[in-house]
Amino acid sequence: MFDVTVLGSANLDLVVRTERHPSPGETVLGDDFAEYPGGKGLNQAVAAARAGASTSFVGAIGTDDAGRTLRSVAEIEGIDLSQFVDRDNVPTGRALITVDHRGENSIVVVPGANATVVAPASISALVVLCQLEVPLDAVTHAFRAGRARGATTILNPAPAIQLPIELLRLCDIVVPNEHEVGLLGGVEALFDAGVATVVTTRGEQGIEIHTAAGEQHQIPAPRVPVVDTTGAGDTFCGALSARLAHGASITDAAEWAVAASALAVGRPGAIPSIPDAGATRRLLDQLSS
Ligand code: RIB
Asked: 40 CB less than 6 Å from ligand 1?
């Protein structure tokens, strides 16, 4: 049994740094360009693995250079890739990302092979973690398969869309950002659909936890220099899942994940910026001393 199984997207991120994002119809000059491994699913799998969880990844890439790069990145992390498939005649997913001088990003994803992701018939993991850059059917089946074997299911509803009630009923924990929670009708609507815990991420304001049982907790984010926010939410979700799988309470797991995502914004790129457990522990020790 794995600690964490992540089903989701794997993208090659094409990243331009620029002073400010262009308005519609406008051209601006970029400062530099770089390619990084990314994709919400793969970012979250790497974050879980670097937080110390045995992790498996369910995803799809094309048989192209980008796909080979992403596979080798995941291999280096020790992630189980038996359900990470190569698809002929379809390109690996790409994300076109602009990062401004404040580190804020805007992203357009071209799914490519991510649109072909399907869930395996059976998933054996303590936590199953999904996002929405892959087909909804795959997410629904992954949660069903995970729950059949007792997994905790965690949905990061990004990018934001209206979700069918059948899917929400299969979620134990939902981790939206401020924008996404509004689109889903708010925390109470998620409870009405059967979700037990909502963890809302609020960027530099930290996070809020609400449970259907009426508990509320806020965890502030440490003040850190921001270079690039890309993948910070994914780092949070992966680290949260890893700590929950290791038996932490939701507040302890979230405190760890807030520290991990604070470290992630300090460096460029999605996967290159994800901290390991040692770095996260050092930041937590520093914050508590
Ligand atoms: O959440 C950040 C990620 O969103 C990027 O790595 C990009 O690939 C898109 O999936």
From this structure: yes
In tens, the pLDDT along 146-155 reads 999 999 999 9
CA distance 185 to 125: 30
Task: Name the residue of 16, 230, 261 whose CB sits within 8 Å of the most ligand 1 atoms, as the mutation to test its pocket.
Answer: 230
Query: What's the rounded Cα separation, in Å, for the pair 147 and 141?
Result: 10
Q: Which numeric CATH code is attached to 2-9+40-92+113-288?
A: 3.40.1190.20
Record the pTM: 0.96
pLDDT at 284 over 90: yes
- The pair of structure tokens assigned to 218 is 């806020």
Distance from Cα 288 to the centre of ligand 1, integer Å: 31
Residue extents of the structural domains in the chain: 2-9+40-92+113-288
Question: Tell me, what amino acid is at 131?
Answer: Q
Has 234 been annotated as catalytic? Answer: yes
Q: What is the pLDDT of residues 271-283, one digit of tens each?
A: 999 999 999 999 9
From 9, 42, 44, 131, mutation site for ligand 1 pocket: most ligand atoms within 8 A of C-beta: 9
